[in-house]
Amino acid sequence: MSEHTPHRPAPTGAFGIDIGGSGIKGAPVDLLVGELSADRVRIPTPQPATPDAVAATVAELVDSFHLSPDLAIGVTFPAVIQHGVARSAANVDDSWIGTDVTQVVSKATGRTALAVNDADAAGYAEARYGAARGRDGVVLVVTLGTGIGSCLVVDGTLVPNTELGHLEIDGHDAESRAADSAREREDLDWEQWAARLQRYFRVVEDLFWPDLIVVGGGVSKKHEKFLPLLDLRTPIVPAMLRNSAGIVGAAALAAQGVALD
Ligand code: BGC
């Protein structure tokens, strides 16, 4: 034991919840290995997805597990989450802006909770347990989905709410051109989409000079279709945790009670 051993041992488990546009998913997480310790449960996101309706669904999801009362709950949300409060609503109901998501979830579940941006959660999981595990320096995780999410981790420490999906590039909000939803909406082939990603990642690497870029989001499982088409100076690799990343990262951040609260 080192002299830095904390008085209370770090928790070895927490519960992670991923709030998305179509589903709310949750599972307990083993923090020693960064893996789900039980099958995740998915409940469709209520429509309209107002704070009250989502809180009730989150409580239902948590209650479907038999959890120890002191297990912390981490929740991802697809918006800027500053000290628990949603500050933006790019792809979610506007009524969330100004809502204290951390408070809504702790009230609904009666537990210690922490709400974090969805990309921050997924990226932190990749940094701690996945594709960037053990990497020092500046790691940038970019999630490609309905929007573009970003997560900046510097020597293992998360710099929250970077929102690099909203860089203005060539007069456009970047995610409107380069998110996976743009590929689907415009029926782009892999080469056409890769050209947009090339422009996006070139701007990002010129501004941030990361040591490593990790690409997440559902489409990252097809990484061999587009990552080899990119010509960047920064090494760029696919995410490893795939669809459990948000749950694992939210749980890990909640257990730490990090400086995000
Ligand atoms: C939001 C981010 C979010 C990303 C991925 C963007 O539109 O502004 O907060 O992380 O989408 O969901």
Summarize it.
The protein is α/β, with parallel strands linked by helices and about 260 residues long. The chain is about 30% helix and about 25% strand.
Strand and helix layout:
Layout: E1 13-19, E2 23-30, E3 35-36, E4 41-44, H1 51-63, E5 73-77, E6 81-82, E7 85-86, H2 101-109, E8 113-117, H3 118-129, E9 138-144, E10 148-154, E11 157-159, E12 168-169, E13 172-173, H4 174-178, H5 180-185, H6 190-208, E14 212-216, E15 236-238, H7 245-256
Parallel strand pairs: 1-5, 5-8, 9-14, 14-15
Antiparallel strand pairs: 1-2, 2-3, 2-4, 6-7, 9-10, 10-11, 12-13
Helix pairs in contact: 1-2, 3-7
The site of beta-D-glucopyranose (BGC) has 17 residues, from helix 3.
The CATH superfamily label of the largest domain reads ATPase, nucleotide binding domain
What is the CATH topology assignment of the largest domain? Nucleotidyltransferase, domain 5
CATH architecture of the largest domain: 2-Layer Sandwich
| Overall domain count | 2
Quickly count the helices: 7
Largest sheet: 6 strands, mixed
Percent of residues in helices: 25-40%
Order of helices and strands: EEEEHEEEHEHEEEEEHHHEEH
What would you call the shape? Answer: globular
Number of strands: 15
- Quaternary class: single chain
Low-confidence stretches: none
- Gap between N and C termini: 29 Å
Residue-averaged pLDDT, rounded? 94
- What small molecules are bound in this structure? beta-D-glucopyranose
Instruction: Quote the beta fraction.
Output: 15-25%
Computed CA radius of gyration, to the nearest angstrom: 18 Å
Question: What is the name of the CATH class of the largest domain?
Answer: Alpha Beta
Structural class call reads alpha/beta
